């Protein structure tokens, strides 16, 4: 028969500090509170500066022409009217301008995504001799101003018959946006584990199948980021459209807004504001819907994982 010895639990150690969750958090210092207040005020000012012009634009598009001309242009509308939108569609070829901008934006965005993904895949994943030098030279295109290409492109387009076509705008817009797209795709591909590609290679997958089955599905958020970032620039482009487009039937939105300038420089401002609202709204809606994917795409290349 064995006897068991009952032992009392050891008393708690009085010198052991309490766990972090039980410690009392120190009060915020005046310096920290001042920094947070300054940061909050700065953010509020930035939001006001960015949002107020849009709010003013939408409100002014519903004001009557007499109310806008006689009263304070920054005041709230005294009365609301939809005649401005009727004049906006009746004065110029707004539907044609929107269609042309849509064709150019979609065409250039597709070219940017396809060429950017393939170039980044070849430079970052496949790799070849002097790929780093090629990437550095390609990224130098970010600092090249678009104005230096206007005259040479105009001469070349006139010789090959591309002048006054949609391609005359799509090609240079995609070319000047390609370096940034390659940079974003390369930054994302850099952190895809190499083991994934090696495993696919061992299973017999070639470079094209690896691109279609692995790289492309993982690049959805980066594709959204590239499309949104470049679509804003392409949708609002004026330089290339004004240089290479000669006929009214191919004018994009920035060129079409010139139709609201009448004789002696008189401008129908309220109709112009209504036309701008019609053209800005699609971009705002797309950005609001896809902003999370865009932010994730920008961050995916900055942190591993």
UniProtKB/TrEMBL annotation:
Spans through the membrane: 38-59, 94-121, 133-155, 167-189, 210-235, 269-290
Which N-terminal residues, if any, form the signal peptide?
none
Q: Where in the cell is it found?
A: Cell membrane
List compositional bias (Pro residues) regions by residue number: 9-21
* Span list, region Disordered: 1-27
| Every ABC transmembrane type-1 domain range | 98-290
- Note the topology in the membrane: Multi-pass membrane protein
Question: Can you tell which superkingdom this protein's organism belongs to?
Answer: Bacteria
Keywords tagged on the record:
Cell membrane, Membrane, Transmembrane, Transmembrane helix, Transport
> What does the similarity note say?
Belongs to the binding-protein-dependent transport system permease family.
Q: Which protein, by its recorded name, is this?
A: Carbohydrate ABC transporter permease
Organism listed in the record:
Microbacterium alkaliflavum
């Amino acid at each position: 028969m064995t006897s068991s010895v009952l032992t009392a639990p050891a008393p708690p150690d009085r010198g052991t500090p309490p766990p972090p969750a039980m410690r009392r958090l120190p009060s915020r210092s005046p310096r920290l509170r001042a920094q947070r207040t300054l940061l909050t005020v700065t953010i509020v000012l930035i939001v006001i500066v960015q949002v107020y012009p849009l709010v003013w634009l939408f409100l002014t598009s519903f004001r009557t022409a007499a109310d806008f001309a006689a009263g304070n242009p920054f005041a709230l509308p005294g009365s609301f009217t939809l005649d401005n939108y009727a004049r906006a569609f009746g004065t110029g070829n707004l539907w044609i301008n929107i269609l042309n901008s849509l064709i150019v934006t979609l065409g250039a965005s597709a070219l940017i995504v396809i060429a950017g993904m393939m170039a980044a895949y070849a430079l970052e994943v496949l790799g070849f001799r002097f790929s780093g030098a090629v990437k550095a030279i390609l990224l130098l295109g970010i600092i090249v101003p678009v104005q230096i290409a206007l005259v040479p492109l105009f001469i070349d387009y006139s010789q090959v018959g591309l002048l006054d076509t949609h391609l005359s705008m799509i090609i240079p817009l995609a070319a000047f946006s390609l370096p940034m797209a390659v940079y974003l795709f390369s930054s994302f591909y850099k952190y895809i584990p190499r083991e994934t590609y090696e495993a696919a290679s061992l299973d017999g997958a070639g470079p094209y199948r690896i691109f279609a089955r692995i790289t492309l599905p993982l690049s959805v958020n980066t594709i959204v980021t590239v499309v949104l970032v470049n679509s804003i620039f392409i949708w609002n482009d004026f330089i290339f459209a004004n240089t290479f487009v000669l006929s009214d039937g191919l004018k994009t939105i920035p060129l079409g807004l010139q139709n609201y300038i009448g004789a002696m420089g008189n401008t129908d401002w309220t109709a112009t504001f209504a036309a701008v609202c019609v053209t800005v709204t699609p971009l705002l809606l797309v950005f609001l819907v896809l902003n999370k994917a865009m932010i994730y795409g920008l961050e995916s290349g900055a942190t591993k994982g």
